[in-house]
């Protein structure tokens, strides 16, 4: 059963959406303030999050920013009618969609279906990748080194995935940045270096191996002859 988190302080809306979603066969959890919403979102395990922007405690934009550090879970923002800046900022921060209040529940349900379907296609379309003893299974979010599980955050995972998909091709920092972080990070190429370092700590140092090669002045590559 697909699981949806609602973070919405207007209890009438939250309850109504919850009932409709349950009626459609989704499992639902609900938070009515920012802090609870954030801690549930960080705990993870949701297929989609409905996130109000104006919330007591921590606002929705800040919650989204923190979620996106660790996770690619789909997020639909619930915004007030005239909050154009909120929408723009939300989409820049990596929201998948937004819906303006008051909304017709059928429209919300339709958007949820579209996003979940897209997510499913992405997941089922991804083959398991192998190289240098590493196995990466994107649909199950699993990495192992010679059979031993490696715990990675969402960004570390996507970076490794991108390098493995392009094995033997030197990837520039800009290309990696765009694939893994998206255009809003343009120019911040040191982010890539930081995350390559994390990967090396978690894989190379731990297993005494050398997976990612630095190509000076250009970027990174996973070489497998
Ligand atoms: Ca609100």
Major sheet description: 5 strands, parallel
The portion of residues assigned to helices is 40-55%
CATH second-level architecture of the largest domain: 3-Layer(aba) Sandwich
Structure ligands: calcium ion
The succession of helices and strands, N to C, reads EHEHEHEHEHEEEEHEHHEE
Kindly report the spatial arrangement of strands forming the biggest sheet: 2-1-3-4-5
Q: How many domains is the backbone divided into?
A: 2
DSSP strand tally: 12
> What's the CATH class label of the largest domain?
Alpha Beta
Write the layout of secondary structure elements.
Layout: E1 3-7, H1 11-23, E2 27-31, H2 34-43, E3 48-52, H3 60-70, E4 75-79, H4 84-92, E5 97-100, H5 105-124, E6 129-131, E7 134-137, E8 142-145, E9 148-150, H6 154-165, E10 171-172, H7 173-180, H8 190-207, E11 212-215, E12 219-222
Parallel strand pairs: 1-2, 1-3, 3-4, 4-5
Antiparallel strand pairs: 6-7, 7-8, 8-9, 10-12, 11-12
Calcium ion (CA) is lined by residues 9-10, 52, 54-55.
């Amino acid at each position: 059963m697909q699981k949806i988190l609602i973070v919405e302080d207007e209890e009438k809306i939250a309850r109504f959406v919850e009932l409709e979603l349950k009626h459609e066969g989704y499992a639902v959890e609900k938070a009515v303030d920012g802090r609870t919403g954030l801690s549930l979102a960080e705990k993870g395990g949701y297929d989609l999050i409905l996130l109000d922007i104006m919330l007591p405690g921590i606002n929705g934009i800040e919650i989204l920013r923190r979620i996106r550090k660790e996770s690619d879970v789909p997020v639909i923002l619930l915004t007030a009618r005239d909050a154009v800046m909120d929408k723009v900022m939300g989409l820049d921060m990596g929201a998948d969609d937004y819906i303006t209040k008051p909304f017709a529940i059928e429209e919300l349900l339709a958007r949820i279906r579209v996003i979940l379907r897209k997510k499913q296609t992405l997941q089922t379309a991804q083959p398991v990748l192998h190289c240098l003893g590493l196995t990466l299974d994107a649909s199950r979010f699993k990495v192992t080194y010679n059979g031993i599980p490696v715990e990675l955050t969402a960004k570390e995972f996507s970076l490794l995935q991108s390098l493995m998909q392009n094995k033997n091709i030197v990837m520039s920092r800009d290309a990696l940045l765009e694939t893994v972080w998206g255009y809003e990070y343009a120019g911040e190429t040191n982010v890539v270096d930081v995350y390559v370092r994390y990967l090396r700590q978690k894989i190379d140092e731990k297993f005494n191996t050398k997976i990612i090669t630095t190509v000076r002045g250009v970027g990174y590559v996973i070489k497998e002859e």
